[in-house]
Specification:
With 316 residues, this protein is α/β, with parallel strands linked by helices. Helices cover 32% and strands 28% of the residues. About 3% of the residues have low confidence.
């Protein structure tokens, strides 16, 4: 039975905690957050701490799940791995390129496993797209469009998300998802054209990526307006268009009635978080837990890919 600790009981932890609690071969035994009120609902079933060092000293943990603000990920991961604890952390690994080597070398030195939870690599709709690309089921890819749009995150603790030095703003909060998936599915692109409109209360970016035989246009935003969150894509292949739009994923063929609805195949449940239904959070956690339990290499997320993503994001 794997013993799990989680630090950072904020918004995204609501997608992680239920997964750990539902697993038969893992037990979430402890939580840590500097805000004791965030753990009130768990104090009867978990050991709750407001001091991370105290939790590490008192608890025997096999896996630490880091759901902290962006700027804390690397330091907390290193501290845990130096104590022989395997670590899965929310994205991104860091805002700094040099932290990739620091974190992975710490994992290797201490013979533990580490993974950044780049969730689109486990998201069914996106994996359907990758499979269509890999198999060339509908011919070669000609073009693509990816959007990830929403309102400004005024709700974040201590305003950290609106502090560029701590969050990296829209590139690291939203755009990183689509860029990381592109790198995973299609390889390392070149930035062909970029535009950014950044103001104190909103941040919008638009980027065209060149992959040689095709290009992908991507947009991400924190609008000043209270715009509802949407995450969609549309890809043009030689013989079909694959679109994940309006809550469904469909393949549109050349004939008028040639439409394949893959929504049921991709459908799952993320719980209460306001994102398209999927079991991607469970998939990433189950994958990492299996790697730890059976001593398998963590191959789904590679350090050189993470480094390339940071390099691109820091150029926008």
């Amino acid at each position: 039975m794997l013993k799990i600790g989680l630090v950072g009981v904020g918004g995204i932890s609501g997608a992680h905690i239920p997964v750990w609690d539902q697993m038969d071969d893992a037990e979430l035994i402890c939580l840590c957050d500097i805000r004791p009120e965030r753990m009130e609902n768990y104090k009867d079933t978990k050991h709750c701490y407001t001091d991370f060092d105290e939790m590490l000293a008192n608890e025997k943990i096999d896996i630490l799940d880091i759901c902290l603000p962006t700027y804390l990920h690397a330091d907390f991961a290193v501290k845990a791995m130096e104590k022989g604890i395997n670590v899965i952390t929310e994205k991104p690994i860091s805002l700094k390129e040099e932290d990739v080597e620091r974190v992975y070398s710490t994992a290797e030195k201490n013979n533990v496993k580490f993974m950044v939870a780049q969730v689109l690599r486990f998201w069914p709709e996106y994996l359907i797209l990758k499979d269509i690309f890999d198999t060339q089921k509908y011919g070669k890819l000609l073009s693509g469009s990816m959007t990830r749009l929403g309102g400004y995150p005024r709700w974040s603790w201590d305003g950290w998300m609106m502090d560029e030095k701590r969050s990296g703003l829209t590139p690291y909060d939203l755009h990183i998802h689509d860029l990381d998936f592109m790198v995973y599915a299609f390889g390392i692109p070149k930035v062909r054209h970029q535009y950014r409109s950044k103001q104190p209360d909103q941040d919008f970016i638009s980027v065209d990526y060149d992959f040689g035989e095709f290009s992908i246009h991507s947009e991400a935003s924190w609008y000043g307006a209270r715009y509802p969150f949407t995450a969609e894509f549309r890809f043009q292949f030689e013989n079909a268009v694959v679109a994940n739009e309006h809550g469904s994923i469909k393949v549109y063929g050349r004939d008028e009635d040639d439409v394949i609805d893959l929504t049921e195949e991709a459908n799952g449940d993320t719980g209460k978080i306001n994102l398209p239904k999927s079991n991607a959070y469970a998939n990433e956690i189950l994958y990492f837990a299996d790697c730890v339990k059976n001593n398998k290499p963590v191959e789904k997320v590679k350090p050189h890919e993470l480094q390339s993503v940071i390099q691109i994001l820091n150029s926008l």
